[in-house]
Amino acid sequence: MMYQGKAITVQRLDEGIAELRFDRCGESVNKFDRLTLNELREALAALGTPPQLRGVIVTSAKDGFIVGADIGEFLATFDLPEAELLAGNLAASAIFSAFEDLPLPSVAAINGIALGGGLEMCLAADFRVMAEEARVGLPEVKLGINPGFGGTVRLPRLIGADNAIEWICTGKEYDAASALKVGVVDAVVPAGQLREAALDLCRRAIAGELNHLARRRPKLAPLRLNQIEQMMAFESAKAYVAAQAGPHYPAPLEAVRSIQKAAMHGRDKALEIEAQGFVKLARGEVARSLVGLFLNDQELKRKARGHERQARPVRLAAVLGSGIMGGGIAYQSALKGTPILLKDIREEAIQLGLGEASKLLAQRVDKGRMTPLQMAGALNGIRPTLSYGDFAQVDLVIEAVVENPTVKQAVLAEVEGRVGADAILTTNTSTISVDLLAQALQRPENFCGMHFFNPVHRMPLVEVIRGSRSSAATIATTVAYARAMGKTPIVVNDCPGFLVNRVLFPYFAGFARLVACGVDFQRIDRVMERFGWPMGPAYLLDVVGIDTAHHARAVMAAGYPERMGADGRGAIDVLFEAGRLGQKSGRGFYRYEADKGGKPRKLDDPEVAALLAPLAGEARELSDEDIVAIMMLPLCLETVRCLEEGIVESAAEADMGLVYGIGFPPFRGGALRYIDSLGVAAFVALAERHADLGALYAPTDGLRAMAASGRTFFGQA
Predict the structure, then answer these.
(1) Known catalytic membership, residue 550
(2) Contact at 8 Å (CB) between 225 and 261?
(3) CB 136 within 8 A of CB 177
(4) Cα–Cα distance measured from residue 494 to residue 487, given in angstroms and rounded to the nearest whole number
(5) Radius of gyration of the chain (CA)
(6) Residues 478-529: tens digit of each pLDDT
(7) Where is the 3-hydroxyacyl-CoA dehydrogenase C-terminal domain (predicted)?
(8) 448: Cβ–Cβ under 8 A, 6 or more apart, which residues?
(9) CA 418 – CA 660 distance, rounded (Å)
(10) Superfamily holding 314-494
(11) CB-CB neighbours of 41 under 10 Å
């Protein structure tokens, strides 16, 4: 053994070939954390000392190759002074260059996933061979940064600027065939032949059959583009990338700029340019927010795995109430492999639900994401029924009938008598108290909320609502089933609106207040879309449904009268009374017509201004910043209350609920990280400046204490 570490070993094989193997002790995957980078430096020093060494292959003992850098170390690293962060990045990059400069041929054997730094390690090798099922990519832009271990330097010099820009700026993963086609790898073989194929490439290079120095040379030189070719390649790429990424995500455009600036330089100077671009992004709020979201998501997965260890199996599920929502739930369950009964009391509702599932499956076939045979198998997993005949075998029921507590209680009591004693009942209510509904049940310990968001197939979040008598097994099994459906579950405690709707309706209250101040609702939409929301509040209300919002607002007002109690008629009331129910009726704040693809197209409707005019009181001159504050303060403050009251267990779960549930701008990280980014003390001061707007704008005592002590939600003072 030439080198033995906790993450890397180097062993001399026959014929003077060394094997540098990644195998991080105590971890399921290999990643470039500080320990691994330090050991790679030491391992390369060991490779440089023994005589008669003729080549090296790089392998992994894990199922994957290297998943990338250790993202858990990012935020602390990003907090370093700029000069220290730059020096650290250059030092790490120099390790990869030292590997590239070894005086012997090198071959990377990519046995599984190789992302970010994992692929950058491979790019530093002279040759790359890849297993058929492996995947590679540079996904750093999804975290708000660029590759920092030479990806923006070596990849363009290997596969050309155009291909490299596509790989880096989209952050996609690519299969072996795609990697081979553009020249990222030199060969693709079955997994069982990978190591021998790597050794064969190394032997051929040692024998002079393959010229490893010639393969290395382009990576050390400037890009082979003249000035005119560079201008054509980069200027058009910058325009396209900027349009695709949008104004809130700077990393893709910064990547193109780094490649362009480095094009005329050799490797070492190009790596300095890459490091400067990396540091610029790493010190920005977007990178902090997106890395924070990634870490939050990992925390959610960790908690879900803990629940899964207590879960009972769900072999057969059922949804009560067909139609669009029921059909969407049935589709998602069957698609992911859990058969489901689709029950309603009306045949036409059954057909509507089946039609929704069929449409969604057909779309997957059209996009090449499943075969017609797979579609047939998924459809066979949905069993429509008008009776409870098969319910004795059901493990978990999702009630999705009309949002009326009396109706829901009757349906839940009825189905409880038709299922086994251990079957779990859940309700898809969006606002009604789980404890209230549980009053109709004989076994309330087997009952909880399971709140899906519409459209089910697109929205990743499921709120699992714990009632006061819900058992741990009930929550665990519901969480596990949501995960099996491909969803991200967040466990919250029972209260009016739970987490997402409780936080959303103060945001709508801010919108109503602005309309009452005479602010044009279309201006509000434009301002909030520029802030980063996928759609403004008026447009969102149309999509949610004015009738749905009208009902939910009444529930919120009853639950939190001191903050959300109705203060006269608002915009939602006016449109509801006018029968303008949003997209579903073709008229809401906007008018809707179907486009060529059948999707609703938003159009202006002059009638709305006249309807809303009587609501406007004394007009106030408000800046765009004022509009953002009046909209965002109540949403953020209600999120703080949910955390302080224990409705949601952690800041990570609160923020992920908003990003996954209502499209909170990901680059801002969620409501609580947004408060952190402004500074807790500054946020409290902003709220106090708007104190005249009522109780929704009042900071909590806990938030004031955080501001006074310098604490933050995510531990960065």
Answers:
(1) no
(2) no
(3) no
(4) 20
(5) 29
(6) 999 999 999 999 999 999 999 999 999 999 999 999 999 999 999 999 999 9
(7) 497-592
(8) 424, 426, 427, 434, 464, 465, 466, 467, 470, 474, 475, 478
(9) 34
(10) NAD(P)-binding Rossmann-like Domain (3.40.50.720)
(11) 16
